[in-house]
Design goal:
Helix content is 34%, strand content 31%. The chain is of the alpha+beta class and 179 residues long. The protein has a single domain (6-169), classed as 4-Layer Sandwich (Glutamine Phosphoribosylpyrophosphate, subunit 1, domain 1). Helix 3 runs antiparallel to helix 4.
Length: 179
């Protein structure tokens, strides 16, 4: 008996023109069946001061979101410190180490990708993505940043559309949050 696993998503963050925009699609796939079309994988936490987006197992991602919010409370809203401490704990804790998810977290000044390997990655060019359609979304966003004068929200929406057109685990129902 094989156990079906939930497949990816696409989360994209673009920091440009003094704005941050984070978007995620709504598709949840179990094996070769789409089980949900409008999942919300991008949300605001910590009194709406932080935007998070997650890819991976939903329960695991929500656990990470709760843990990040705990760290933000402990470190007075310092996203950098909270992310570093969460990544350290995620990598070393027996329970957390088994979580299968990745997260992007952003505030008005910082954007980070967090993983269970202990990674806290800040993008060089203001664009970062996770999930199965991330390569398409990130490539499209970078191309638009370098070759257009689009606003960040427009870049994200167009890049997510391209990812949804290419990736079978990404759909066109997009949630967008911005500062």
């Amino acid at each position: 008996m094989s156990i079906e696993i939930f497949h990816g998503t696409t989360i994209l963050a673009v920091r440009h023109k003094k704005k941050i925009v984070v978007a995620g699609d709504g598709q949840v796939t179990l094996g070769n069946i789409v089980t949900k079309h409008k999942a919300k994988k991008v949300r605001r936490i910590y009194n709406d001061k932080i935007i998070t987006g997650f890819a991976g197992a939903t329960a695991d991602a929500l656990t990470l979101s709760e843990k990040l919010e705990e760290k933000l409370e402990r470190y007075n809203g310092s996203l950098t410190r909270a992310c570093v401490e969460l990544a350290r704990e995620w990598r070393t804790d027996k329970y957390l180490r088994r979580l299968e998810a990745m997260m992007i977290a952003a505030d008005k000044d910082n954007t980070y990708l967090l993983s269970g390997n202990g990674d806290v990655i800040e993008p060089d060019e203001g664009v970062i993505s996770i999930g199965s359609g991330s390569t398409a979304a990130q490539s499209a966003a970078v191309a638009m940043l370098e070759n257009t004068d689009f606003e960040p929200k427009e870049i994200v929406e167009k890049a997510m559309k391209i990812a949804a057109d290419l990736c079978i685990y990404t759909n066109h129902y997009i949630t967008v949050e911005e500062f």
